[in-house]
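Ticket closed. Logging final result for Class A beta-lactamase.
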Amino acid sequence: DRNVEGVKAGDNDLAFVQLPDGQRYCIAVFIRNSKEDDKTNAAIIASVSKVVYDYIAKK
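Final structure:
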């Protein structure tokens, strides 16, 4: 839900991930006080998740 100024209190996502090599991790991404639309917030969360996945997969 958004306030009268169009600010969304929060969007978040949580995932438990297992890489092909068996490594596991969990990630939680939180966005707060966003004026972006829901699609943009989802894209931001996906981008953060991809950066973390790529980093851990290279270890």
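The longest strand covers residues 8-18. No further action required.
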